[in-house]
Amino acid sequence: MIMAMKAFPFAASLLPRKFYQRDPLLVAPDLLNKILVCRTDGRAGRIVEVEAYRGADDPAAHSYRGRTPRTAVMFGPVGRMYVYFTYGMHWCSNVVCGAEGDGNAVLIRALEPVAGLDGMRAARPLAKRDRELCNGPARLAQALGISGAQNGEDLVKGNAYALVDDGMRPPEQAVQTTRIGLSKAADYPWRWYVPDNVYISRK
């Protein structure tokens, strides 16, 4: 379905539910170059870095030990946002995927801003350059106004936040590495990013 997103500068298609009904190791690299958009004010960024988390198969996943009040969204319908609070000060945004009940998600680690930059700058006044607006999961959440209020937000319906495809395909040779900042399963190569992109969190 092609639709003109409210307060968005070009037509794009909402990602369908079936996009998310796959293993997170497939969903994660396919999310590269998709766009996360806040529909209320048009702030948007192209996804350039992601990490996959694979439920009971992944000691680093919040869902590894089963469903809890904090992780309930991860075990629910796919295509929803799982937003969690970390270090007592930051929000981070994930996309639930796989099969319902598996506890899988993909962490959005970095965006390349494409619209609503004035709003992002206002939300992140300490960013010295535009490349610092969304180059990390906590930074992009702040830049797009994502908080715990969005936990469980349905990205397929796209009422407030949406993931859309504007026709740009994922890179043919995305860089694949181990994930960042983990003490468990630190050797799992489940991080992908767009090569040579200056907006990723780190190489």
TrEMBL record:
EC numbers: 3.2.2.-
CDD domains on file: AAG
Keywords per UniProt: DNA damage, DNA repair, Glycosidase, Hydrolase
Enzyme kind, highest EC tier: hydrolase
Protein origin, superkingdom: Bacteria
SUPFAM superfamilies: FMT C-terminal domain-like (SSF50486)
TM spans (from-to): none
GO terms of molecular function: hydrolase activity, acting on glycosyl bonds
Family statement: Belongs to the DNA glycosylase MPG family.
Protein's name in the database: Putative 3-methyladenine DNA glycosylase
Organism encoding this protein: Dyella acidiphila
